[in-house]
Design goal:
206 residues, alpha+beta, OB fold (Dihydrolipoamide Acetyltransferase, E2P), DNA polymerase, domain 1, 3 domains, five-stranded antiparallel beta sheet, globular
């Protein structure tokens, strides 16, 4: 299993990035690939998790060890696979997920695509009290605003909005849900990553 890959970001897509290391291009699925848009051509360390099943070998990657640990906790829950865990992490901060689980906030958890009441309850049953190794300090802290990651804007914002909508569709949001927010999103000029963050906040409130 690969613990991490240190290499150059060569390509950023709606669901994955390609990192070149020693002449080999690794396709790595990430929660929000567009956070890497401003880092193309730069050498980065991506913390990875290799998922293997009979019909698939996939490499998942994260900016931090914290995200990787949260991903592994989420896929240990019955009913949550790698794709569902990635959709949860794409919303933003692991701190929010930890607090929701510890506070038994099913309403918050069911806002994620693919997470119904049954899965939210399972997340709480399986993980409550078992997340101190991830974020012990967050269990006592009050919820705060979502932190936003900024990247350099290299493309026209129309293209960036289109990329953001493609990424959200890949996470499981329907065309109907995305149509509801696309007009409002298009009123502002933002980077792809910022569009995704803003869109997820809007979708979670619906």
């Amino acid at each position: 299993m690969y613990a991490y890959i240190k290499g150059t970001v060569e390509l950023v897509g709606p669901e994955y990035i390609v990192v070149e290391c020693n002449g080999i291009g690794y396709q790595i699925l990430t929660p929000n690939p567009f956070v890497f848009s401003g880092k193309k051509g730069k050498e980065l360390t991506i913390y990875t998790y290799q998922h293997v099943r009979e019909d698939l070998i996939a490499l998942y990657g994260f900016e931090t060890q914290l995200e990787k640990k949260m991903f592994k906790k989420l896929i240990s829950v019955s009913g949550i696979g790698p794709k569902g865990a990635m959709a949860i992490l794409a919303f933003g901060e692991p701190e929010q997920v930890v607090r929701a689980i510890e506070n038994e906030d099913e309403k918050f958890l069911t806002k994620f695509p693919g997470v119904g009441k049954k899965t939210a309850r399972q997340m709480i049953l399986d993980l409550k009290g078992k997340l101190e190794d991830i974020l012990p300090e967050s269990l006592e802290a009050e919820p705060g605003p979502v932190k936003k990651k900024t990247i350099a804007a290299e493309q026209a914002y129309g293209e960036e909005l289109e990329e953001a909508l493609l990424a959200l569709a890949a996470l499981g949001y329907s065309e109907r849900e995305l149509r509801k927010i696309s007009t409002q999103l298009g009123k502002e000029k933002m980077t792809t990553d910022q569009y995704i963050k803003r869109a997820l906040q809007m979708l979670m409130k619906q």
